[in-house]
Amino acid sequence: MPLLKLVFLGTGGAVPKAERTLPAIYLEDWLGHRILLDAGEGAQYRLLHIDVSPASLTLVAITHSHEDHVLGLPGLVLTSRFLGGRLRVLAPRTMHEALGRLGVEVGDSYDGGRLKIRCVEVCHTVDACGWLLEWDVGYKLDLSKVADLPRWALTSLIRGEAVEVGGRVIRPEEVADPSHRRFRRLLYTGDTGPCPDMWRSVEWVDVLIHEATFADDVDPRKAHEEGHSTVADAVEAARALKASVLVLTHVSARYPDKGRHRALARAVQPPPHIYVPEDFDTILVKL
Predict the structure, then answer these.
(1) Taking the model in full, what pTM does it have?
(2) What is the pLDDT of residues 146-172, one digit of tens each?
(3) Of 218, 165, 190, nearest to 63 (Cα)?
(4) What is the number of alpha carbons within 13 Å of residue 23 lying toward its C-beta?
(5) Distance (Å, rounded) from C-alpha 116 to C-alpha 90?
(6) Chain centroid offset of residue 61 CA
(7) How crowded is the C-beta side of 42, counted as CA atoms within 13 Å?
(8) DSSP secondary-structure letter at 277?
């Protein structure tokens, strides 16, 4: 069964606190990809805390150039190099020249076969990418249409490959369960204000990790001028994108704890599954 593991290594924003450090999220999928979303200061130490070597990362995806999202990257690059690896980094194109000087492979998309990652433009104060991860989970077959096919053919059809059986070419879409969605998606916004253009370009996701820098005690217009969102903005985005899971992160240091964010999340009706993780919290998501 497709399963994602998300470990929230840093859930704060801009100003760190002892119990809430700067943005970094570790993602591991059932295919073996190991991805770090943003690299706040001290990211490599937090990876080591969960027994993940920087050299084992498939890639690091940086949303934008603000220091709270990138200060941990040089250490990751150096440690990976000492361990015999060469880090791959995804970032907005305006960052590519500077990152290239670190000696990393830089891009703004990734094609890993069944996992593809692309930049989605978000609404921040600098050039910024939200990262859309899309997994091909294969087809679910309509058993009434494939009962007489050999097992090898079923395996290929589930993977999305056409087969030839008894001189007849069978395509996966011809025998698929029409109620099953072949792809699964996760979007990590990084820093953003409300961004309808992003919603339109993405259309839908299964999991949305959205910044919620502010709760309900800040004038939304001020938050948006700073390129940030409130809890209400994140919920609106989740509804627009039809997300079944919403994770709120990048919580301002002005809040002593996350009680205010959690209270607002619990009040959402009808509720998607909303999480407000602490540092080092782990969420397992079935896709």
Answers:
(1) 0.90
(2) 788 888 888 888 878 888 888 889 888
(3) 190
(4) 29
(5) 12
(6) 9
(7) 14
(8) P
What whole-number distance in Å separates Cα of residue 76 and Cα of residue 74? 5
Amino acid code (one letter) for 12: G
Q: How far is CA 49 from CA 9, 21, 28, in A?
A: 9, 14, 16
Residue 278 CA to residue 28 CA, distance in Å, equals: 18
Tens digit of each residue's pLDDT (9 = 90 or more) over 96-126: 999 999 989 999 999 998 999 999 999 999 9
Q: Does an H or E element contain 281, and which?
A: strand 281-286
**Nearest by Cα to 12 from 258, 226, 208:** 258
pLDDT digits (tens, 9 = 90+) for 8-46: 999 999 899 999 999 999 999 999 999 999 999 999 999
In this structure, what token pair is assigned to residue 209? 């990790």
Question: What pLDDT, on a 0 to 100 scale, did the predictor assign at position 155?
Answer: 84
What domains sit in the chain, N to C, each tagged with a CATH number? 3-137+182-286 (3.60.15.10), 143-174 (no CATH)
User: Which tokens sit at 185?
Assistant: 């998606």
Q: Which two tokens stand for residue 223?
A: 């938050």
CA dist list (Å): 129 to 29, 151, 187, 251, 257: 21, 42, 10, 19, 28
Is 68 marked active-site? yes
| Cα–Cα distance for residue pair 275/244, rounded to 1 Å | 11
Single out the catalytic residue among 29, 38, 51, 68.
68
φ/ψ (deg, to 5) at 202: -95, -40
